[in-house]
Design brief:
The structure holds 2 protein chains of 2 kinds. Chain A is built from 16 helices and 22 strands. By secondary structure, chain A is of the alpha/beta class. Chain A has 2 domains: about 1-230 and about 350-625, 3-Layer(bba) Sandwich (FAD/NAD(P)-binding domain); about 235-345, Succinate dehydrogenase/fumarate reductase flavoprotein, catalytic domain (Flavocytochrome C3, Chain A, domain 1, Alpha-Beta Complex), CATH 3.90.700.10. In chain A, the strands form 5 sheets. In chain A, strands 1, 2, 6, 7, 8, 9 and 16 form a 7-stranded mixed sheet that branches. A 6-stranded mixed sheet of chain A has the order 17-15-10-21-22-18, covered by helices on one side. The termini of chain A are far apart. Chain B is of the alpha+beta class. Chain B folds into 2 domains: about 50-150, Ubiquitin-like (UB roll); about 155-170 and about 185-285, Alpha-helical ferredoxin (Fumarate Reductase Iron-sulfur Protein, Chain B, domain 2). Chain B has helices at about 20-50, 85-95, 155-165, 185-195, 205, 210-215, 220-230, 235-245, 260-265, 270-290, and strands at about 50-60, 70-80, 115-120, 120-125, 135-140, 145-150, 150-155. In chain B, a hairpin with a 2-residue loop joins strand 6 (about 145-150) and strand 7. In chain B, helix 3 (about 155-165) packs parallel to helix 7, helix 7 (about 220-230) runs antiparallel to helix 8 (about 235-245) and helix 7 crosses helix 10. The longest helix of chain B is centred in the first third of the chain and has 27 residues, at about 20-50. Chain B starts with about 20 loop residues before the first helix and ends with a helix. Classes of the chains: A alpha/beta, B alpha+beta. Chains A and B meet through helix 3, helix 4, helix 10, strand 19 and helix 13 of A and helix 1, helix 2 and helix 4 of B. Bound molecules: flavin-adenine dinucleotide (FAD), iron/sulfur cluster and FE2/S2 (inorganic) cluster.
Chain lengths: ~625, ~290
């Protein structure tokens, strides 16, 4: 068994920042990550990092823009923390050598971004995320932080108290990809989940293949609520064959969207008569899909983004990387042809419920980055607000886990007095499959006849509390799970289940949502769960068995797909990224509240908590979100 | 081009464990039907596709019987415009052989996971259009690195070299003022720009004859990393001298014989050989200074 003070799961922007912070506080810190840190998807971010650095701008304005962008579903303490801490954190990156783009006077450049009242987005060329990631990895090397790379964490080692709020997290269990061993990692002070987004729930996404939302699923099954999962951001301009993102910059420079009939539909079909192509992400995404659904799409699938009229010189000067992307990933020359684009899943606003210090309702368990929900983004994230979230809240989680004295959080977690129970009518029961047959349950050890996770089996009637024993028991459980996957040589391939799940999510839980579709999705998800009971791994090898790794991930995708869909069905309004055919208005009287879903040992339970709109010195009044 | 589906070679035991439960047997049957359906679908897709691409893929697994001796497997994958080598590998894995193993993640040339040896040169699979290649397309793991399994190589040596050059910013010029950045002029940022684009894919190192012969040679990527800091004026003169000592050691810049192979394969178009040459000139200058 490995042992450290702080274990950080994931080596992307959030994980690295958390690890550096914990290490600076004197904690013996290790990163356990399924990819080498520099391979994390933070590297794909292009646009930039918002921070109120300059005269004329203020953290208050940044907070206001963020709250408005969130459609009043962000929590003021989280948003204000982000806005206040971002400048210091960005300057800190500069001091670590990050190659930001510069002004003539040598200072860090900033540019305008959608939804911002001031040009406050700092950037490093069109590769901001790449530079942020590499700069922070360099610091991790400098600090001598131990990195277990290519170790996939499969479960959290948490005590099995009845009430999630009484539970404690003592470590994680991970699978060594190269050698095939399952090992325990004991954390003496805390575990920080920084596992990134869940894009693979959908079949068309800007996220990486490894963005399977493992952290959300593990925290969920351990008893932590998932918050606001229905809010999924779709980006309107992604390449159809891969999902590679074509930056908003193209439209910012004057790129135009056309349908198959050559109409500039944003105007000609009245989707956004003022802003046109520059309307907000959700508006443009819905417009594109409407065009396709009404038969005006190209090949029934996409629309065209045309920048040819900008001229070669201007394109080469400002949008050169777009030319490469279109050429390399779609085989299209943007100088002579329009580029095919369609909406793709991009960002998950919701996540593991945490407070401003990154802590969840389970003691010793933290989350940061895209997998966490503090909540900064509410129902809609502004471009350039995710990267500052990684560094601001990554650092705070690292400090808190390491034991630094910090101001007590204002945001509450878990089921508190402020929460109200929720109800949603589902066509099939969500949650674990109670399998009555005598076969090997695909997702439980021999003791558990279903797939509800590890904590359900209480060997001695009371809660197992000894940290070492908790980790050991989880290791045992995971070894059996892996073993049973490898032994089973007949059944369904995970890839088939994943493919169908993704197709159903894209069909039914996309930018357009209605009750029928959401109910269909829940049925499909149920079917996926049932099929998963008989999943098998063909590759018998213990060496770099990606078949096994992906099979473990697919289970997580099923849990997340269900959480997103349940939230979407429960929320009967249109807010931010969540649109419902039956309820095309924001309904503040009833829905100024967060959706929370907890696993509840296999029978998911829905509840709500109020949004906090009271800031440090003012209360944010919900207004109509118009630009 | 043939439209034949490769035969599954992994089928082993025909025996199934006895499971009394009737329902279970039914379920299993349904699964087999499903598996058959899936293969049929793949075959139909193949037949419907106007074109297919023939891949010859390197296979090796130290543990699995039949794979301990390296071999090449043939896969025929339906071709669509815009398809990359990575797309073809994913298709082959998800439809024909789930044990086919390769690293990949971002699918957009930024994570650096999928550098492989494609038709005899180091390429990033996600960035290589199938349509531009001679067929059959031969896919092998990066040469000069130990093969872990199939197309996966051990990257440890590459990481060790990267970390041998103190790959982190070091300066004593950090401003004291709160929220004040260290200034850098645009020209200097432009100077280091290309060198900061490295995605640690290892293609350059794999293509380099010198690195193949001298295990301690820092190699093009690590030297480029050092260049990135050496040229960054924010680090200051003392640091530059310190970095030069690392670079001009026995297994440093002087090993490079200017063959340009690294520059040719770098998927990020980093002028590696030029950077190394520039550092050699700097080394000469700094030595003259001490004479
Ligand atoms: C194409 C694109 C462009 C974007 N552009 C911008 C932008 O311009 N500005 C902005 O603010 N935001 C942008 N975003 C959003 C932002 O980049 C992401 O939200 C953010 O980078 C996520 O960082 P992270 O650290 O949470 O996760 P990641 O960087 O995805 O890292 C996750 C880490 O967790 C590890 N991991 C996952 N599962 C496991 C497991 N089971 N066991 C062990 N390790 C595990 C992975 O190996 C990885 O190291 C963009 C996103 C995309 C996709
Ligand atoms: S220098 Fe180029 S080829 Fe070498 S590792 Fe970096 S990106 Fe890859
Ligand atoms: S998959 Fe990331 S570089 Fe090719």
């Amino acid at each position: 068994m490995h042992e450290h003070d702080v274990i950080v799961v994931g080596g992307g922007g959030a994980g690295l920042r958390a690890a550096i912070a914990a290490s600076e506080e004197g904690a013996d810190t290790a990163i356990v990550t399924k990819l080498h840190p520099v391979r994390s998807h933070t590297g794909a971010a292009e646009g930039g990092i918002n921070a109120a650095l300059r005269e004329g701008d203020s953290w208050e304005d940044h907070a206001y823009d963020t709250m408005k962008g969130s459609d009043y579903l962000g929590d003021a303490p989280a948003i204000e923390t982000l806005a206040k801490d971002a400048p210091e954190e960005v300057i800190n990156l500069e001091h670590w050598g990050m190659p930001f783009s510069r002004e003539d006077d040598g200072r860090v450049s900033q540019r305008p971004f959608g939804g911002l009242s001031f040009p406050r987005t700092t950037y490093a060329g069109a590769e901001t995320g790449h530079h942020l990631l590499h700069t922070m990895y360099e610091q991790a090397v400098k600090h001598g932080i131990q990195v277990y790379d290519e170790w996939q964490v499969t479960e959290l080692a948490v005590t099995d108290h009845e009430d999630p709020e009484d539970r404690k997290c003592h470590g994680v269990v991970a699978y060594d990809v190269k050698h095939g061993n399952v090992e325990g990692f004991k954390a003496n002070r805390g575990v920080i989940l920084a596992t990134g987004g869940p894009g693979q729930v959908y079949d068309h996404t800007t996220n990486a293949v490894s963005n399977t939302g493992d952290g959300y699923a593990m925290a969920y099954r351990a008893g932590v609520p998932l918050e606001d999962m229905e809010f999924v951001q779709f980006h309107p301009t992604t390449l159809p064959s891969t999902g590679v993102l074509i930056s908003e910059g193209v439209r910012g420079e004057g790129g135009m969207l056309y349908n198959a009939d050559g109409e500039r539909f944003m105007f000609e079909h009245g989707y956004a008569n003022n802003e046109g192509e520059l309307a907000s992400r959700d508006v443009v995404s819905r417009a594109e899909l409407t065009e396709v659904n009404e038969g005006r799409g190209v090949d029934d699938e996409y629309v065209y983004l045309d920048m040819r009229h900008l001229g070669e010189e201007r394109i080469l000067d400002r949008l050169e990387n777009i030319l490469h992307l279109a050429e390399d990933f779609e085989g299209v020359d943007g100088l002579v042809e329009p580029m095919p684009v369609k909406p793709g899943q991009h960002y998950e606003m919701g996540g593991i419920e945490t407070d401003e210090n990154g802590e969840t309702c389970i003691e010793g368990l933290y989350a940061a980055g895209e997998s966490a929900c503090v909540s900064v983004h509410g129902s809609n994230r502004l471009g350039g607000n995710a990267l500052p979230e990684l560094i601001v809240f990554g650092k705070r989680a690292g400090h808190h886990a390491a034991g630094k004295d910090m101001k007590e959080a204002e945001i509450t977690t878990g089921y508190t007095d402020e929460c109200e129970p929720g109800e949603v009518d589902t066509p099939v029961a969500p949650g674990s499959v109670r399998d009555t047959s005598d076969g090997v349950a695909a997702d439980g050890g021999p003791e558990s006849a279903d797939d509800s996770g590890t904590r359900r089996t209480r060997s001695d009637g009371g809660a197992l509390a000894d940290p070492q024993a908790v980790v050991e028991r989880t290791v045992e459980h995971e070894r059996e799970r892996v073993q049973s996957f490898l032994e089973e040589d007949e059944g369904v391939q995970h890839a088939a289940i994943r493919e169908d799940l993704q197709a159903s999510m894209t069909e039914n839980v996309n930018v357009f949502r209605n009750e029928d579709g959401l109910r269909t999705a829940l049925e499909d998800i149920r079917e996926a769960r049932e099929r998963y009971q008989d999943v098998c791994v063909d590759d018998p090898s213990r060496t770099f068995n990606t078949d096994l790794l992906h099979t473990l991930e697919t289970r997580n995708l099923i849990d997340l797909a269900e959480a997103i869909t349940l939230g979407a069905l429960a929320r009967e309004e249109f807010r931010g990224a969540h649109w419902r055919q039956e309820f095309q208005e924001r309904r503040d009287d009833e829905w100024l509240k967060h959706t929370l879903l907890r696993w509840n040992d296999g029978s998911p339970e829905l509840f709500y908590k109020p949004v906090i709109l009271e800031g440090e010195s003012k209360t944010y009044e919900p207004k109509v979100r118009s630009y | 081009m043939s439209t034949q589906v490769p035969e599954t070679e992994t089928e082993t035991e025909a025996e199934t464990k006895s499971k009394p439960n009737q329902e279970r047997r039914m379920a299993e049957k349904a699964e087999r039907r499903e598996a058959a359906d899936r293969e049929r679908l793949a075959r139909e897709e193949l037949e419907a596709a106007d074109e297919t691409v023939h891949l010859k893929v390197f296979r090796y697994d130290p543990e699995v019987e039949g794979k301990q001796e390296p071999r090449f497997d043939d896969f025929h994958v339906p071709f669509e415009k815009g398809m990359t080598v990575l797309d073809a590998l994913i298709y082959a894995r998800d439809h024909y052989d789930s044990s086919l193993t390769f690293r990949h993640s971002c699918r957009q040339a930024i994570c650096g996971s999928d550098a492989m040896f494609v038709n005899g040169s180091q390429r990033l699979c996600c960035k290589t259009q199938l349509g531009e290649l001679e067929t059959p397309v031969r896919v092998e793991p990066l040469p000069h690195q130990e093969v872990v399994k199939d197309l996966v190589v051990d990257m440890q040596h590459f990481y060790d070299q990267m970390e041998a050059v103190e790959p982190y910013f070091q300066t004593d010029g950090t401003p004291n003022g709160e929220l004040e950045e260290q200034r850098q002029d645009r020209k200097n940022r432009e100077k280091i720009k290309m060198s900061t684009r490295c995605i640690w894919c290892g293609a350059c190192m794999s293509s380099c004859n010198i690195a193949a012969g001298d295990n301690e040679y820092l190699g093009p990527a690590a030297i480029n990393k050092a260049y990135r800091f050496y040229m960054d004026e924010r680090e200051g003169k003392d640091m530059q001298e310190h970095r030069m000592r690392v670079l001009e050691q026995e297994h440093g810049v002087w090993r490079c014989q200017t063959q340009f192979s690294c520059t040719e394969v770098c998927p990020k178009d980093i002028p590696l050989t030029e950077h190394i040459q520039e550092l050699k000139r700097e080394a000469v200058k700094s030595n003259l200074k001490f004479w």
